[in-house]
Description:
This protein has about 900 residues and is of the alpha+beta class. It has 26 helices and 23 strands. It has four domains: about 1-90; about 140-335, no CATH class; about 350-525 and about 760-890, no CATH class; about 545-745, no CATH class. The chain has a six-stranded mixed beta barrel with strand order 4-5-10-7-9-8. A six-stranded mixed barrel has the order 15-16-21-18-20-19. Strand 8 (about 245) and strand 9 (about 250-255) form a beta hairpin. The longest helix is centred in the N-terminal third of the chain and has 47 residues, at about 45-90. The relative contact order is 0.10.
Amino acid sequence: MIQYCRALFRNLRHRQALNEELDEELSAYVESVVKDKVCRGISPEEAIREARLEIGGLEQVKQGVRDARKGAFVEGLMQDLRYALRTLAGSFGFSSIIVLTLALGIGANSAIFTLFNGVLLKPLPYPDSTRLVMLWETLVRNGALDGVAPANYYDWHRETHSFEKMAAIDPYPDFILTGSGSAQRLAGAAVSQEFFSLLGVHMALGRDFLPEEDKPGSRQAVILSYSTWMRLFGGRTDVVGQSIRLNDASYSIVGVLPRNFYLVSKAADYQSRNRIDIWTPLALPSPPAAWQRGTHPLCVFARLKPGISLQQAQADLNVVAGNLQLLYPNDDKDRGIAATPLESHVVEGIRVALFTLLAAVVMVLLLACANIANLMLTRGAARQKEIAVRIALGAGRMRIARQLLTESLVLSLVGGSLGFAILLVSVPALVRHLPADVPRAADVSIDWRVVLFTSLLSILTGILFGLVPLYQARRVSANDSLKQGGGAVAADHSRVQNSLTVAQLAIAVILLAGAGLMTKSLWRLTEVSPGFRTDHILTARLSLPPQYANGFVFGTGKHPRISQFEDELLQRMRAVPGVQSAAFASYLPMSGVDNSWAFYIAGRAPNPPGVFDVTHYRPVSAGYFETMGIPVLRGRTFSESDTDGSPLEVVINETMARTWWGSQTPVGQHIRFGDQHWRTVIGVVGDVHHDSLADTPEPDMYVPYGQVPNVEARPVIVVRTAIEPDSVVSALRSAVSDVDPNVPIDQIESMKQLVYGSESESRFRTAFVLTFAFLALFVASIGLYGVMSYSVTQRTREFGIRIAIGATRGAVLRAVLARAAKFVCIGVCVGVAGALVLTRLIASLLFGVRPVDISIFVSVPVLLIAIAFIASYFPAKRASSVNPMDALRYE
Length: 891
């Protein structure tokens, strides 16, 4: 290949020399013409004028020479293309195998690149998105990010100087739509007035919120998402100015967002994974109330001023954080402020997974190129005499190389075109099956980057697998190839082919090791007990209208309407045939919704200012633990008598008991929230995985529904059945409608579906890598079979002679298998060494498995050796069956 590049360089340099030679000849000719005319008595001026006329003619001659050369090059290129098409069409089966292999490899790479491009490479769908940041409160003791208190946001907005705009969003409000058929729950978000202008969003209809609408007590305005506008109003353009009934109040529609707008974020930022249907003003008081410095519901966006770096903005925020710590030590001591670029924040945690998938498909493509190069070598060996004849008739090495490279590029471009067709079909399917936690799924589409990537990949693969035949053609000797045998070239060919096969086996080992680790990790994950039973449990979310909470005051119990609704619904569901038990909860495991509260333990010294003991806060009704199958370890759980009139009680989980009481029993101890009343710990239950099976259980505190210190507007009903959970869905809908038709019910899922969905990202990632690994194993096996078949074909005469002089067929069989075993062992060793290094890069994706797992690193080589033995056995069997007389007449 190096000599080929040198020859190409010499050819280019030769062309330049020819042009320079023409220029020198023209200059010398003009000089001689002028001298001759002056010697004949013509004045120098007249001689130069006549010489210029002759120069024009010579320039035309020179340009004609150049055009002829260019035309000859183009004609030669077209001739190479026509010959390549005829040659490849003549070996249709061979060409089809290569094109199909390339199509699968290029299509798979382009599909994963489309995902990679949409999530990581595309700019965010906002103007000048590189200046967008998110602002967080941070806990100084561990650097953890936290939501923002409304009062702190108010101070940040006034005191910082590095931001062009700053806006906040409260993503938790829900709205109940009435007045248009059955009640519907709409996911809402409350935003400050500058939110949409900060993101650079212009309304499709109507206008943005006005400053006066973002104040307490102002008229209630609402902006609709595009999908909500289409669903509720059918895309009518006269919707602006109309009223809509939300939470039993009238709201005026002032705008409709554009079709392509969506809020870029991580699902974990907003807990709920649903889309946002409607937007309302945040309407914070100015200044906020004192209590609004102790709650942290907001997410804050900001746009940097032009010329201000992130480091400068962070320094500005540090000053503001220091001032707030001094002014409000009870709430802001040991709390800082962190600015993170929106682009990097959104994709945090998914980069490694995407790079892993991309690396896997690149390895598959490299393996496919090696296999195709092997096929091209085999085909090239059969064409050695053809190439030798062409060389003998005067074809130059560059001409032969250009012809072979043209054939490779034709194959790769056809394979790339078919791969692009596969891409067009696979991308929509890929997007449909993406896990819910993958950010920016809406941006995963085919754009110019994907088209450019596919085109370049097609060309590069054509060059890559075309290099080996070029190297082989360079070694062709016309004299040797026209003779019978050509052993030197065949030996060189065999070495290259064996090297490629070793590379294929090594890549297959790396992919199989990675897939094995991820498969074992997923298996370990599915073996984790979630802490509750998942079979025969139906869950559904209810949205209670705001009037259910009117008049609620802690200490007097829940509003009678809430208690009455929940009690009546539970009674109706418990009476449904096939239902064993039913209960309510506020934060269901695996739902993506959670809450935490600070608490104090009686009899213990108070923590330093700004340091709190925090636990997850989970209101549940009586019967919840029995319905979910959560084991009771000590004490008891809640009963129907645990209401507002009974002593205040709490149940904690095992992790909370171990964290704060150690080996002592917490039953009978007292804790409280903030300034609320003391509660008695009456029981300890088993740990529950609330976020995902891979997470370590955290401290949990359960409070009876009749004694909650705040109203839960989105309770989840949990129903245990003796039959299939889906069988009672209609009964559940009817029961809710009978109790109150204005209460929407949604997110109806079985507990098994929720748990399965929590593992979706691991399943998706593992399925892809496992598919690519087995594809690599298949391609490597085919490559090994091809090498052995070619080797047997080349050595047919040798085997015939061995058998003729007394060698047993078993000895020939063992000799062929021993040769195969040699480079199989080399490939496996190289692959294991590579896997030991590369699998460490996916350590963060594994659960319960070390990157160097002995069982995987033993089983993968054994599997590959077994398959390699099968792939080698049949050619070896054919070698041992050679007829000596036929072999001696070979060739």
